[in-house]
Amino acid sequence: MTDTIALQVTRYRPDRETEPTVEEFAVPLHNDWAVLDGLNHIKDNMDGTLSYRWSCRMGICGSCGMMVNGEPKLTCASFLTDYGRGPVRVEPLAGFPVIRDLVVDISDFLRKLPKVKPWIVREDEEPVGAGEYLQTPAQMDAFRQFSMCINCMLCYSACPVYALDPDFVGPAAIALAQRYNLDSRDQGAEVRLDLLIHPEGIWGCTFVGECTRACPKGVDPAGAIQRYKLTAALHSVKSLLLPRGAR
Amino acid sequence: MTAAFDVLIVGGGAAGLRAAIAVAETDPALRVAVVSKVYPMRSHTVSAEGGAAGVIASGDTLDEHAHDTVSGSDWLADQDAVEVFVQEAPRELIRLEHWGCPWSREPDGHVAVRAFGGMKKMRTWFAADKTGFHMLHSLFQTSLKYDSVTRFDESFVTRLLVDDGRVQGVVAVELASGRVEAIIARTVVLANGGCGRVFPFTTNANINTGDGMALAWRAGAPLKDMEFVQYHPTGLPFTGILITEAARAEGGWLLNKDGYRYLQDYDLGTPSPTPVLRSMELGPRDRLSQAFVHEVEKGRVVDTPYGPVVNLDLRHLGAKLIDSKLPFVRELCLKYQNIDPVTELVPVRPVVHYMMGGIHTDIDGATPITGLYAAGEVACVSINGANRLGSNSLPECLVFGARAGRAAAERARNAPEPGAAASAQVRDEEARLRQLLDRTDGTEEIAGLRVRMQETMEDAAGIYRTGAELAKGADTLRELQDRARSLALEDHSRTFNTQLITALELTNMLDVAEAIIASALQRTESRGAHQRTDFPARDDKQFLAHSLVHRDDDGQHQVELVPVRLTRWPPAERVYGR
Amino acid sequence: MTTGPGDFTERAGDQAYHVRPYRPPVNLLWWLRRRTYLFFVLRELSCLAVAWAVLFLMLLVRGVGEGGDAYAQYVAWARMPWVVVLNVVALAFLVLHAITWFNLTPAATVVRLRGQRVPPAVIAGSAYAGWVVVSALIAWVVLRQ
Q: Is residue C8 part of a domain?
């Protein structure tokens, strides 16, 4: 008889509830099971009505973000044995509206993302026949870390500013803007600066730093934002002192 | 009815997004829809690790890439398609680079290429060992530029609307609300991926349930070469998580339980300390997976609670190389296997990875149904034939995604408005879904049927097959199809009902599984990834042909053969390691 | 652009759809829920200690400037127990302020020398070093006879 561990899972069924409730399930405690495997066991064998998102189960698609014992985690990358004897509390990602059970509405991020122009902006496009834009390993290093974002939303969940002010553009979107700003092939830094120097943009961030702590891919969005603040501040000073020279 | 869209793309992975961008660039006035059951950045393209092949090195030629691909396919690839593919692949990869894809570089700033299985020259572009991730995010972020592209995220397509041999659009369930809606379009491009979840051990994500293949087949489009299922030689034992071929390309060795590099016993060359192209661990995936099965028969494998494994040895590569070229591999091994590849052997086994087969298309992604196109893993052009070479499928998504997008755009310009007959189909589909959702007298558990299907496929359609096992498998699947008519749904809610989706995915998988078995039964030869112990030789006289599976009036799978298109490479022996 | 199915041209019958996302209320004491949030709030509040220190310094300057009685009054006031306690608390917050500020500077300042990124510890270290040097300088000016 295998040991079991208790999973306390948030349920929310808007067709019959106005508020979430908690249900407890005892799942087998295998030492190589992730929390996600526990959820799958519940859905396949105990309660088929449990709804949650998952796909790759290897920490690269970003689908399975949830709160596990109060911390935003990828449930495919958190293991049952990390939680001792349990119980393990699994809740929908904090800071987002809950659609159903463990599924949250992340459409806000999908609306904000295009606004920071997360693509290569160039005044002069080279034709494909001219070959690749040259980029040395050092130049790629400059933005590589910020390109690792899997859009899992754990950073938004950890950010107290986003919880208090949903208009805040947020860590991942700004980090992605930085990813392109620092890419030597991009020429859109000015455009993005104009888009992000405002109270809901980079200046909304008060450097709590929780986003970086929550990020499962080491993107360091807090670092991206602080660097961006420095760039923005220098840019503002320059345009003040040399209004024509700075352009 | 009026068409809301000119081109409707199902699937938001590399092929789907590339098609969307192609349409938007061909004609910004065309209205494009991308309908995906997940947010695009969750598409399975994201998990691809190793790289994308394209000829750019100075000593390399298109002909050599084509020949490697054709011989890798065990001569089942259509050579005209392969010639188009190898020519357009480098251009697509450069285009993606212009769109920001962070290809790894040489010190002088040019794109770097590395060796890969079955390739005679180094031509695999790579973005560290997260090539699919970087490609997908570059494509997705670039697609945000185009106002003419409308996305329907988390919408599950349940049916293609076809009238009078012409596609009219789709019916889809919007997950968040449960609303069943028709999206009418002049053309449809299916780009929703493979079907690895039909098998129990797979590198594939939960979402790879053959939806596109089932949709097309039910609508009357044939599936091609479904018997060719690729087993990737190195997946982790419990999870099936992919350990990229790049680990072997950088110099990794496959060792049996005696620490012996066993591939040398299987006509794959002789071992050398550093990798030799097209030899040993850089042989093609079908031959490496088959070698594993022989090692199991000889008792030379390591037994684990999750079945037999061999070991991947990366220790001699050193931490510096692993951290710079294979960082994600190290992370995956540590996290999911508690093993550090820098100092320990990594247990691996072959796992289902890719479908060479798929919806039958021509070199522009067109299916026999007017206005219906397909591209990417869901399609079969065929450039991969009986066995795909690693790093060919990512550029395949780009090349044929773009071609299908352009072809659909061209047709959409001249297509007539959809007819009224589609309305009846929409109402039928709504009724069917409502009946499934509201039913309370179901008796069959979804998970139970799914597990039984997967076990059946593992036994009947594994790396080595026999006519008897295949026939038995076909019978079991028939029985499972019958039982699936009484699926029990506990979740009758409309709001984000994932159980409904799981039930629909199961019915898709059963149709695809039957297609695989039916095709495998018909092909009484061994070629590439389809190995019959009762017919162990390759038979070019009868079977230098694709198997085409149609749906007949009784809903059964009927297989016919269609000759392979040869241009410049007559069938020869596949030689590796010598 | 992303859109919902409102743009479809065909509609289903009269199904009841329950799309009612639940928005958990925001707790005013959110900053007590986590050690890191609490630490963050204390760090932000330390700016009050900075403001106090500036005010205290300005009062000292005024006292010194006016000299004689005014200065004696200032010193007597500064000796009062509540002022001393306040200054001790303020000093603690000032140290917190300085340490957190120095530790966070590397996040904003990425310096590359000869292609390699200067390690964060060096950036923070130089800030600390500068602090020590300036403090030593001030101490020397103030304490020399």
A: no
